[in-house]
Here is the input.
Amino acid sequence: MKTVVKVPLISIALAVAYLLLWPVAISPKAWDAPLSKGFTGSFAPNTQLSSLTLIDMENDYGPEDFAVNSNGDIATSSHSGFILVKKRGQQGFTRWVSTQGRPLGIEYDHADNLIVADAEKGLLKILPTGDIETLVTHVAGQAVVYADDVDIANDGTIYFTDATAKFAPEQYNGTLNASMLEIFEHMGNGKVIAYYPDSGKAQVLMDNLVFANGITLSHDNSALLVNETGKYRVLRYDLNPEIAAKVTTVINNLPGFPDNIVAAHNGYLIGLASPRSGAVDALSAYPFIRSMVQRLPSFMRPSAKNYGHLIRINEKGMVLNSYQDPAGLYPFITGALEMDEGLYISSLTAEKVGFIKI
Here is the structure.
């Protein structure tokens, strides 16, 4: 009888010890999550994205971002590592060249070279011939761990984000898992980096960001707009060297996790990849409990949810449009490209490119 009693007690003791002491990848920091207002006001639910036209990707998936060259051809990055291109007049996207990594943010420069923020390879340049050059893998002696998004100024300066200097996607089972670790830890390992092609030098402009994600130049090129995903906000970094207050908040307390941001014909388009997690917010002030949660099986931890959401804001952060698909039929929307014919919608996991006439 005593042996029968001891076995479950020992099992319970081992389980408790595991939850309390087993090493985890994160070192959580306490913070105060802003109270979520949910889908109210400017974010009231609608179904404007529920009937997207789907454009073929040649059996690829995960069209993370778009870029347009001088011919009007549209490129997209994919989960397989391939860059796909939809030439003007074509119906679908076809494979062009692979980075052998995970290309995320992309942008064409003035010579139609495709600049790529690759989460595994760093900052790359793909020439029109398909040849690939590596531009940046280290800055100030530190590796670029998770190159995420990129934009190019009128003067040729390239700005890109290193989403986290700690959680490399190839080490932590992909970009989504690595991003969730950075957000759940909340130490702020993200950076914004400037690369100057003429000199080949790079420098860190912003750091201590909780998953530095989408980045775009303002319409007048005077500032950068940066999505800090883990804090549900968009920041503005003023590029004028005479401005003392470099960083200001454009919009705060978003109802979801902001992914990419891009300048559009009117304002800026931002993809909200997933609604906020009540559990993540509730545990924001309790780092020790977050460590315990990280020791649970993955299916028991907070996870992203399918809910299609794209918003448009103006320079002052006012929400101009909120396009939604509550059913999440087109999941994990990362952003959009606005063309004369309509909006091309990108996604972290979708098997097609979304399109809608606006």
The first helix runs from residue 2 to 21. Helices lie at 2-21, 175-185, 278-282, 287-294. The chain has a mean pLDDT of 94.
